[in-house]
Each structure stands twice: as C-alpha cells, then as structure tokens.
C-alpha cells in the first residue's frame, strides 16, 4: 500500500528545489494527521515531514519554570528553523533538534536529508517573512474551537503524557499565546481548512465531520466541475463566502454524509488526477483519512480523505502544474 502511494505523483525534472508545504494551526488542530495523509498521497519515501515542535527551546519542566509556552516565538529556536528550511530548500542536509512529546524532553539531534516533498507542520510556521516565503503552498487548519479543544484534550492525555489537571491548568496561558502568535498566521495561508460537526450531532468529534475549504485568491485554480457532478446531494457544495476580513472567497464544503460508493468515486477521480497517469490502474488506492479516536483506535473519515487528496491536488498545481481533469 505505501509502496504504491510512493509512485503516484510525477516530479518534473526541471524542478531545482524540493516542494515545500506548510501546515500551521493551533494545538490539537489536526496538523500531524493531515500531514500523514498528504505524505501517503505524495509517497512516503519521497516525503519528509518535519514537526516544528522539534525547535522548542526548553523541555516541559523548564518551560513551566520560565512561564513560557511553545505558542510563543520566544520559546522556540525560530532562527535555527529559518536556517534549516533554507538549507533543505537548497538540497542540503541538516542536524535537526528532536523534542519528545511523550515526556516533554529534548533528545539528541538527528541527521536529516531533504526529499522531493517537505511538509513543515507546527504552530509558528508562518511567523516570519523568511518562513512565509519558503512554501509552495500554505495551509492553515482552523477547526471549530470546541472541536479543537476536545481533540487537544484527547491527544494530550493519551499520547502527550499529561494529566487531566495539567491540561486544564495550561489552557488559559496557551490560549493567550495562541491569540497573539498562532491565530494571526491564518491571514497568510493560501487555504484554510475548517472541520465542524453536523448540526444534528454538535458533540461529534470524529467521523462523520463536515469540512469547509476556504480558497484564497493566492491558491491556484483547479476545475472542480467533475467532482461536483460526481457528488450526491449533501456531498460536496461550493459557495461564495466571506473571509474573516470581509473579503469574498470561494468555499468548498465536504459533508460527512458522503460515504460508500459516492465517496469512493470522488476519491478515485482525485487519485487519477494526482497520479497523472503514472500509477498502475490495477493496483488499489491507499486508504486515506486515518485518525485516532478517543480510545486510540484508528478510524477513517471520508471528509478527511477527500481533503487530503484535494490539498495534494492544489499543491501539485501550485508547484508543478500537473493538474489533469
């Protein structure tokens, strides 16, 4: 499955630099999950994922003593991150720091070489002009706030090694730093992804969730006509929306109700587009949309899978011009 995915996306020989994708959002927004799906589409062995949490300056205990959070640029080696992104873009290796989320400790650095596709995911990836200029596509994940907080709480108390009390005690300071430093980066994104629960299931935190893609003017144009034609009612829907600054923007809704054969048909169309004729049609498509539920069980979401494929399509159009109808 992974090997098949690795051969799906053609790389133009004239491309001199790696393709760099930014995924930024608040804590618990789903950045790692989205990045993992994009890597499946692009090809695992051709994709390097860098979590920008690795550039945190202090371990968890020291941050608590200093009263600084990872949501504050002062708590991160942003200058080293800028240097490393520049080196990777030029095809040079780096000695990347390592942050252990489970224990909140700093580990020995690791030697990392660039690959054809580089995904940078984290809290502060658009915080400086140098970083913002490095990307071929900038994505901001902006799930509905109550949904994000529940995802964060679930993750931190299972994978992050935090107690319930520690998570609750940290929320006020993290939220203040997020408002000052993380959320303003939304304005620099080419595309904003907003997961939200259906109206009749306001407490839903897993599948089926709806998602809205806010398509900014800096995003390359792709023809969505076939996707909309393939979609059943309450599957995919385009609308003219308003951005947070009041400016008009196209918005694509993918509803959680799209399942089964309808979802599979749209996924197959998108796979054919991103493969651009380069994969064996007899081979099955890798299954996308994987996420961990509250019991740490792997589940699959059709709206997440379609989002991962569509974001890859926009990326390839922006960086390589490989869109095929």
TrEMBL record:
Pathway assigned in UniProt: Carbohydrate biosynthesis; Calvin cycle
Reactions mediated catalytically: D-ribulose 5-phosphate + ATP = D-ribulose 1,5-bisphosphate + ADP + H(+)
EC number annotated for this UniProt entry: 2.7.1.19
Gene3D superfamilies reported in the protein's UniProt record: P-loop containing nucleotide triphosphate hydrolases
Residue ranges of every copy of the Phosphoribulokinase/uridine kinase domain listed in the record: 20-197
UniProt record, GO biological process: reductive pentose-phosphate cycle
TM ranges: none
Enzyme class: transferase
Entry-linked Pfam families: PRK
Keywords associated with the record: ATP-binding, Calvin cycle, Kinase, Nucleotide-binding, Photosynthesis, Transferase
GO molecular function (one): ATP binding
Family: Belongs to the phosphoribulokinase family.
Protein name: phosphoribulokinase
Species of the source: Defluviicoccus vanus
């Amino acid at each position: 499955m992974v090997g098949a995915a690795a051969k799906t996306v053609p790389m133009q020989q004239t491309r001199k630099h790696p393709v760099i994708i930014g995924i930024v959002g608040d804590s618990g927004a789903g950045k790692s999950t989205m990045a993992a799906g994009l890597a499946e589409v692009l090809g695992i062995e051709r994709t390097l994922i860098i979590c920008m949490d690795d550039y945190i300056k202090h371990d968890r205990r020291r941050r608590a003593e200093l009263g600084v959070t990872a949501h504050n640029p002062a708590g991160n080696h942003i200058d080293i991150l800028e240097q490393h992104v520049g080196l990777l873009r030029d095809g040079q290796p780096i000695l990347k720091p390592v942050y252990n989320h489970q224990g909140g400790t700093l580990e020995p650095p690791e030697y990392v070489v660039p690959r054809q596709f580089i995904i940078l995911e984290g809290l502060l990836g658009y915080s400086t002009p140098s970083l913002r200029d490095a990307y071929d596509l900038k994505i901001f994940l902006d799930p509905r706030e109550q949904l994000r907080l529940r995802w964060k709480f679930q993750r931190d108390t299972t994978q992050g090694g935090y107690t319930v009390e520690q998570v609750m005690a940290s929320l006020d300071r993290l939220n203040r730093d997020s408002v000052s430093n993380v959320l303003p980066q939304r304005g620099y994104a080419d595309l904003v992804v907003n997961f939200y629960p259906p109206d009749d299931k306001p407490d839903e935190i897993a599948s089926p969730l709806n998602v809205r893609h806010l398509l900014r003017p800096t995003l390359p144009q792709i023809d969505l006509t076939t996707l909309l034609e393939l979609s059943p009612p309450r599957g995919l829907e385009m609308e003219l929306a308003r951005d947070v600054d009041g400016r008009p923007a196209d918005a694509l809704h993918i509803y959680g109700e799209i399942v089964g054969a309808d979802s599979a048909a749209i996924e197959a169309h998108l796979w054919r587009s991103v493969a651009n004729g380069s994969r064996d049609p007899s081979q099955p498509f890798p299954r996308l949309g994987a996420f961990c539920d509250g019991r740490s069980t792997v589940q699959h979401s059709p709206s997440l899978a379609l989002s991962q494929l569509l974001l890859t399509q926009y990326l390839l159009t922006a960086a390589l011009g490989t869109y095929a109808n």
